Amino acid sequence: MSNTATAGSAAERAADLQDERLFHGEGLTGAVESFVRRVRSGDLGSLPVVIGLIVIWAVFQILNPAFLSADNLVNLSLQCAAIGTISIGIVLVLLLGEIDLSVGSVSGLSAAVLGVTLTQLHWNSVLAVVAAVLAGTVAGIVYGLLFTRFGVPSFVITLAGLLGFLGLQLWVLGPNSSINIPFSTWLVTFAQQMFLPPWAAYALAAIAAIGLFWSDWRRSRRRRAAGLSSGSMSVMLVKSVLLLIALGVSVWYLATDRGVGAMFVFFVLLVVLMNFLLTRTRWGRAVFAVGGSVEAARRAGIKVNRIYISVFVLCSTFAALGGLLAAARLASVGASSGGTDTNLNAIAAAVIGGTSLFGGRGSAWSALLGILVIQSISSGLTLLNLDASIRFMITGAVLLLAVIIDSLSRRSRASHGQA
Amino acid sequence: MTMDPAVAEPEPATRQPVLSLRGISKGFGAVQALTEIDLDVHAGEVVAIVGDNGAGKSTLVKILAGVYSHDTGSVSFDGQPVSIGSPAASRELGIATVFQDLALCDNLDVVSNLFLGREITKGTLDEEEMEKRSWSLLRQLSARIPSVRIAVASLSGGQRQTVAIARSLIGEPRIVILDEPTAALGVAQTAEVLNLIERLRERGLGVILISHNMADVQAVADRVVVLRLGRNNGNFRVPDVSYEEIISAITGATDNVVTRRAEARNTERNAS
């Protein structure tokens, strides 16, 4: 198989492969070679985090054989969902090159709204959930308007929000230091006890693999129709089969314990949805454009302010949603909901997952990968009976490492002319 | 007006200019940046605007791009009087401006940059259609971009300029304004951009080229309009003018007693 464009005359090649300076490979070897070339030039993508995750899992498994037990992994997946959901919002603001430091407080506020409306005002549970999520949406609208009208840096606005919404959370809670949400509420059942039956989980895995193949195949067909190069069938098949095997084995292994948690599936579906919106819609393209160069986006006719507001609203809404999931999983709401390390874990997850702090680079998947790393560390250290103090220090070190990798790969891209 | 009818043979009167400015003035506070500027651009013509720093070139470009409004004077497009109130209005008229800083998103690939803000969608983004059109556009311009799926950051200066110019063509403009397209480019890349400008002329577009580089101007422009201290100071057909004449118009060496006498005599002769 040739990996340079020596084969075939220019005329019979696809429209996008006619330049002789292009490297292009065919089939599986070509795909592997182009991947290696991308990594060498600093386009690491999610490679560091995947390697990191494998290392972390291996180390903890050696230190404590219970780490990779089905029971622990099921817990791990459930722990990921709440902060992971918050982290999706962080990915969005980071893509714009902005930051939201208040997601913890907003998630706490939404939990408090849920607790009070549900148990003290006796609202319908659906209404209470909607009110709690809307609390986050309103916070996002306020941020978006402050940012676009007054041009205050998002860092400062959300720092103010961190304090302000924490205060609002305490005010909503009133004299109650903590409110228990009844176990009979569907939200709590959903978060604690709802697991996919194995057949449904296997079906979902199959749907994911077939969906991947179907979308690849359709793209390939459209590209061929447009006279462009189309990926090879073997690469598409291998990709989907690998995904099917990976998902199938995970489902089988988790099913030896309680199975795949509904809350985790919900979180993954949110990631898939956001990934779709970011990569396949005009809105997503505009988000990346604004993150790359605000001025260029503005001159291209993109309504930059609308993009900022929509992203701040989405971020705070995801924070509120994450707060609900956390409250439902603990079946209680209190002054410490959304406190301590929620904020930093959510931000760290997005960065560790590979979304650049400098804007314009990243993907919704980094929320999933990053939160897996953080929760793995947290869970592993808990299994080793290590104190919270050590846990904070190690998580901090991992975050630092992720930021260093981000900076280094940015520098490498610059030296390879791809900054 | 210091238009010199002896050298500036106007285009045949039967051809109507696409864009025509008459008596454009613009002041910033106490400074009169532009005074009574006239400018015509025909289809398929490259008009170079030259002048020293502070001559008013950028101000003129920004008026055409809709960034500034002019104080007095009139703009007509296809013979119809128009007003250019905003960048969007300028674009809608069919004036595409490529500013010196190009305004590309480095993190996006060539296709995304070309169609930024004008994406083709079929429910979702129609990447294939956009990629196909990108290739056909770049081929028409004979542009040498290796791949349209690489980030713009990894392109050379000339290629970035090419992408910026190609992007301006997506909206099917009639007039393209290029602000210093060859500044900071190497020899080969400059040649690439000059080829591109000729390609634009072949497509029947009116091109306004702002440049400091006389070699470039003489290589591609059909007409040179000289601005000096915010006024028209010469309008030459490139084949009829020497480098020295343009330079003296730019520096004001022609604007003295001798030339004014010659001008007066010319006017007399024309009148009789």
From TrEMBL, chain A:
Part of the binding-protein-dependent transport system for D-xylose. Probably responsible for the translocation of the substrate across the membrane. InterPro entries: ABC_transp_permease. The keyword Ribonucleoprotein does not apply. It is a multi-pass membrane protein. GO terms for cellular component: plasma membrane. The chain crosses the membrane at residues 44-64, 76-96, 103-121, 127-148, 155-174, 194-214, 235-254, 260-278, 307-331, 343-360, 367-384, 390-408. One of its GO terms (molecular function) is transmembrane transporter activity. It comes from Sinomonas humi. Pfam families: BPD_transp_2 (PF02653). PANTHER family: ABC TRANSPORTER PERMEASE PROTEIN YPHD-RELATED-RELATED (PTHR32196), XYLOSE TRANSPORT SYSTEM PERMEASE PROTEIN XYLH (PTHR32196:SF32). Keywords: Cell inner membrane, Cell membrane, Membrane, Sugar transport, Transmembrane, Transmembrane helix, Transport. It is found in: Cell membrane. This is Xylose transport system permease protein XylH.
